């Protein structure tokens, strides 16, 4: 071992020790600092001047979207972990913000304008939209094979046609299907007329195309058919009554603003995942800045007619390249680009996955059983409204709920309505539920 190597090794050791002691004594939430076995590349980029400062490079993988890989999970109890090839830095966002400033600007490639180009060449199927105004039209991002999920939505929250005379609409977005699935999609379309199919790939990596196909359809073909448009996933449950209350009460002021509304917002501190194994991985050549602009979690994004049009116009002149995270791209990058950030962004809910009443969307992607998960959340919603389906009227259970009258489509699950009727007729259950609501 040469003298230089020896010195570098000691320097590495001392630095590690210093950072470890700093973490423990100062009590900063520097939960973990992981060094590569070759200490040099990282330590070269680390400077300690009062606060820990990391100038990161390709070698440093930062956690994002709160997604940590297995190594991080299994070793979460340890303060320091060695990793062979990659290095991770996990610090509280407060410390991290000292290290990497909040979002400032988009990468040059997204700021540049190209010649306008439509997102989609052709639509294969279009929905039939009921005439008349609506408060919100929901677009559910789906994929060919998920007909069961679509049916579940048609039987639950998607079956609400109106609340207190304010209409809702529902459209499913799919891309190109394999032959067998295309046959089924055609059957679905004939039955429900609620599918917008664009000639884009159906895969996860092409979600931005799928979502923007809806923007295109709205911009060029659909006309002014709804006050607001909502985008959600086929494993999400929308809390229709809460949405109704919020958008009905504030409709005029919300229409006057140019704002994107999120079920859950990611701040301007959000970091692209640089972990190649992550579903959210974004390479440096795809997104070169250290932070994302604020964006919405894809589980629920709402915008007015005008805001959707503004975003779509920008989409036509903006490169997408290999950027595959549809929520970041549309609600973050494109929104930010419009008029230099003139579309603001705001959040409706506070907690991403919480099932608490106050949130507007329940994300069921992590549930084992979609049907069960939908069931309890949906029942809770249903109980608060008086339901009208055909000639049947089932009153809601709370005293104040009587003012909310929901009309349901024929697709509404009859067993759920029967259950609703049973529950509201059962004194003890009713008492229990009233307490809960
Ligand atoms: C990383 O930091 C976050 C935020 O402080 C914390 O919730 C998480 O548990 C940390 N992860 C590990 C593996 O220590
Ligand atoms: C980042 O977000 C914070 C809080 O929302 C805000 O105060 C700050 O101005 C934002 N910074 C930039 C550069 O947009
Ligand atoms: C879909 O797009 C592909 C390639 O752009 C084209 O070859 C194909 O004919 C299109 N399909 C339909 C049904 O329009
Ligand atoms: C859309 O129609 C509504 C009435 O249904 C109207 O209030 C609104 O201004 C129209 N919006 C646009 C962008 O034309
Ligand atoms: C946006 O801001 C940049 C830099 O601040 C400026 O060069 C550009 O002209 C602005 N674009 C618009 C549309 O205002
Ligand atoms: C990546 C890594 O360092 N993993 C370690 C996590 O902790 C276990 C148990 O202490 C080790 O065996 C792994 O090597």
From TrEMBL:
Location in or out of the cell: Golgi apparatus membrane
Membrane topology designation: Single-pass type II membrane protein
Keyword Membrane included in the entry's annotation: yes
Keyword list, A-Z: Glycosyltransferase, Golgi apparatus, Membrane, Signal-anchor, Transferase, Transmembrane, Transmembrane helix
Enzyme class (EC, first level): transferase
Entry EC number(s): 2.4.1.-
InterPro entries referenced in this protein's UniProt entry, alphabetically: Glyco_trans_31 (IPR002659)
Primary localisation category: Golgi
Gene3D superfamilies according to UniProt: 3.90.550.50
Transmembrane segments: 17-35
Family: Belongs to the glycosyltransferase 31 family.
Protein name, as recorded: Hexosyltransferase
Organism: Clavelina lepadiformis
